[in-house]
Amino acid sequence: MKFKLITIFISVFVIFISCDKLLPPAPEESEILDGPMENLSYEQRLQFLRGDDAFNEVFTKESGLGPIFVANSCASCHSGDGKGHPFTTLTRFGQDDTTGNKYLNQGGNQLQHRALPGYKPETLPEGASHSDFIAPAVTGLGFLAYLTDESIIEMSDPNDANGDGISGVVNWIEIPDYINPSTSAISQNGKYIGRFGKKASAYNLLHQTVGAYNQDMGIASFFNPIDVYSNLEIEPEVSNQTIYDLDFYLHTLKAPIQRNQNNPEVIKGKVIFGQINCGSCHKETLRTGYSPIEALSNKEFHPYTDLLLHDMGSELDDNYTEGSALTSEWRTPALWGLGLSADSQGGQYYLMHDGRARSIEEAILFHGGEAERSKNLYLELNKEDKNSLIKFLKSL
Ligand code: HEC
Ligand code: HEC
User: Which of 171, 165, 215 has the alpha carbon at shortest distance from 374?
Assistant: First the structure.
């Protein structure tokens, strides 16, 4: 009996040890993009979890998917809250200048190329200009949401008054009726500052979320009850509470955490980043204004973006645009999380708006227009300095 107990004890112990060996250690917080920010209250964490469920909900015919759509869940494109794989790239079409979309009656501006059985998926109308968009990461967006309009305008330099060759303009957009602009919002001729999306054509995270339900998945809501296929008003297929939870989730996903910031090469790379003017658009440090979410109120953060549109030259000009952006203009993407972006893209980088760059260096080489000078300064660096810069970018 005693012997038996000892063998049981030993075998449990061995299993315990070997399980410990077999299971990979839990990843460090800084190695993963998803998860809530710190300092949320208990109630806020619960709402975050409900939003997380909504982000991962897979829609079916029964729950309202389509009838035409691009994908069936938010998470299928923004896997692990990170960047999307090219398989889930979406296509927008029909606007080639600032006068608006010419193909609204032919399914514009977004192509729904999948359909439930019995329905016809959309095809690109002949002659329509178009652009492919790869899904960006959705982390840290609450900080960008609470950046004040004043600070965005302060960073802009539409007439290049300081003569550095970099202008940076706001995408002034018309906002849908369901959005109440914040009391401190600045408007110009009835238009407001767009800050989300590749062309900065979404006013806030609610705008982006309602649009994604409608255009990406064919899910009608109280805010946008128009069916993508019939163009008729239908009953909401998602509740307002779910949309509010999802909006809260997007606001409170933690900001990516930099890794290896004390590594000498990373430190050197950061200096070079500043010296060759990358930081003129990819602004390191910004500060939020007041937010009712305490953890986001008056906080410094490091996104490496100015949220402004920049003319990136002819190579990145797809002849497609949104709002008041020119076809060659793109909103500076945040660089935080860059080093982890390949994790959700099958171990391979797919950078720039459509994923055309397969490495960080390739992404830099695609920079033109206002960023031409910065790219040329990169090309003049010696090999060692280039490596330090890339190492710094990978630490973000
Ligand atoms: C078909 C793939 C796809 C699906 C499904 C999808 N997204 Fe996206 N998402 C994208 C792409 C592509 C963009 C860039 C769009 C743009 O530039 O307007 C984007 C942009 C965003 C942004 C703005 C990020 C930024 O930095 O500006 C947010 C927030 C977002 N999506 C949330 C969601 C939510 C919430 C859902 C589900 C309700 C969702 N997405 C479903 C592909 C997708
Ligand atoms: C004039 C403003 C500007 C300057 C200067 C600039 N960038 Fe960019 N950067 C952008 C814009 C805008 C994009 C997005 C272009 C697109 O999506 O096609 C971008 C994209 C990137 C990307 C890809 C990000 C992603 O998620 O796909 C990286 C990496 C990057 N820049 C690094 C740099 C580095 C390094 C420098 C300095 C050599 C630099 N940038 C200088 C505006 C700028």
Answer: 165
In tens, the pLDDT along 114-129 reads 999 999 999 999 999 9
69 or 22: whose pLDDT is higher?
Answer: 69
**Ligand 1 site, CB within 6 A:** 55, 70-71, 74, 76-78, 84, 88, 90, 133-136, 138, 141, 196-198, 201, 205, 208-209, 212-213, 216-217, 246, 250
CA 246 to centroid of ligand 2, rounded, Å: 29
**C-alpha distances in angstroms, 346 versus 84, 200, 253, 255, 308?**
9, 27, 22, 22, 30
Read off the pLDDT of each residue in 168-196 and give the average, rounded to a whole number.
Answer: 95
Which ligand is closest in space to the CA of residue 54? 1
Burial class (CB in 10 A: 0-12, 13-18, 19+), 381: middle
Closest CA to 390 of 257, 254, 263, 281: 263
Report the C-alpha gap between 165 and 158 in whole angstroms: 11
282 lines ligand 2 (CB under 6 A): yes
Mean pLDDT, range 320-345, rounded to an integer: 95
Residues recorded for the chain = 396
Greatest extent of the chain over all pairs of C-alpha atoms, in Å: 88
